[in-house]
Amino acid sequence: MNINNSIIDFFSENQISLDNVLAIGADGTNVNTGLNNGAIRLLELHMGHPVQWLVCMFHFNELPLRHLVLHLDGTTSGPTAFSGNIGKALEKCHELSVVKFEARQNNLPNALQDVTDIDISKDQK
């Protein structure tokens, strides 16, 4: 097992038992959540029991949203700059006025039509 021993060593040196660990929280990067070599999985193997994974939802949404923006707006022109029309409009979005609007019925796939405000988190709203 090739786990970063500094994590295990920390618990051992501080005489902290991992026997009763029920959950581990981390951001959603692959180094933490990888099925075979992610830190959480390797800790589970070391402890000899599965735990609940508490993965940050901001990171969970980050990659799909980044790919959506790339698909709709094209590549970025730098670490903080967009090249497409949508991204360029976002640079000045704080200057735009808020407008009133009426909700419209969408032609969403059936799975999405049943999603309500109760089903999604405050961040997703």
Key words describing this protein structure:
single chain; 125 residues; alpha+beta; 4 strands; 10% strand
Radius of gyration: 21 Å
As laid out across the biggest beta sheet, the strand order is 1-2
What is the CA–CA distance across the termini?
41 Å
Number of strands: 4
Name the overall outline.
Answer: elongated
Structural category is: alpha+beta
- In N-to-C order, the SSE pattern is HEHHEHEEHH
User: Mean of residue pLDDT?
Assistant: 79
List low-pLDDT spans.
none
Put simply, the count of helices is 6
Amount of beta strand: 5-15%
Topology:
Blueprint: H1 5-13, E1 23-26, H2 30-33, H3 39-47, E2 52-55, H4 57-73, E3 76-78, E4 81-82, H5 85-90, H6 110-113
Parallel strand pairs: 1-2
Antiparallel strand pairs: 3-4
How would you describe the overall organization of this protein?
This protein has 125 residues and is of the alpha+beta class. It has 2 domains: 5-55, no CATH class; 58-113, no CATH class. The chain is built from 6 helices and 4 strands; from the N terminus they run H-E-H-H-E-H-E-E-H-H. The chain has a two-stranded parallel ribbon. Strands 3-4 form a two-stranded antiparallel ribbon. The chain is elongated, with a radius of gyration of 21 Å.
Brief characterization of the structure:
39% of the residues lie in helices and 10% in strands.
